[in-house]
Please model this.
Amino acid sequence: MVASNGVQLCCESFGPLDAPPIVLVMGLGAQMISWDDAFCMGLVGRGYRVIRFDNRDIGQSSRLDQFDVPNTMALMAKAAMGMKLVVPYTLADMANDTVGLMDALGLARAHVVGASMGGGIVQEMAMHMPDRLLSMTSIMSSTGDPKLPPPTAEATALLFSPAPLQREGYITHHAKVLKTLRGPHFGEDVISDRERAAHNFDRGLNPPGVARQLAAIFASGNRTAALARVKTRTLVIHGDADPLIRVEGGKATAKAIAGATLEIIPGMGHTLPRPTWPRIIDTIAAHAR
Model:
């Protein structure tokens, strides 16, 4: 546990302390264990120190229960109309959390890799704190442009469906979510979905925190104009079968940032299936070098 930006963050480090650092930032409602141990060790094997952590309001990091639970449906409607939203915190605050984590670990600069909401967080870092970044990788994320294609109806329904609070019910629900987001092309991951869900449950759920994180996404708006000023070396990775953040979101991110490299993974949805790891790990490591 480390103190950062007024919250406590649960973090874990893999690999030599003196190796170049890669900080992994996870997405909406996802705990740091969504960066699988073997995925982290794959990056260690390419010569890096890897740090993963629970974002605020999830896992074992601080829960901001002093704030109310936002009405996410109402916020989404207001965001669609271009109205200013009042929320407990934004992705910029979560970017400051990540920089505070780096401070606590004595990291002046780091390669940062963000998935989904984490992609938005590392984009905020590149926009506002570029001197702290060695490189940026944005995975299955977008610019926040409301004109981009929306999620599929099935993915939208999952996004707003509350998970059961009982262990077995949660495990079944979460496994279904993972299967839907992954899509039909990587069924071999189904075997471990229930195990991952059980690990999430046992580390601790925080449904109000997920709602506050979703509110942060809605309130953070369209980053396209600000991304045009980003000078950080950028890699964008996206699956062409993503039902939640459509592949156009990745393409828009790469287009917005001058010189960005775009890597499209055939058949990948809104997860990181094990068969894609060698390609993704090698691409991230080569970009960081």
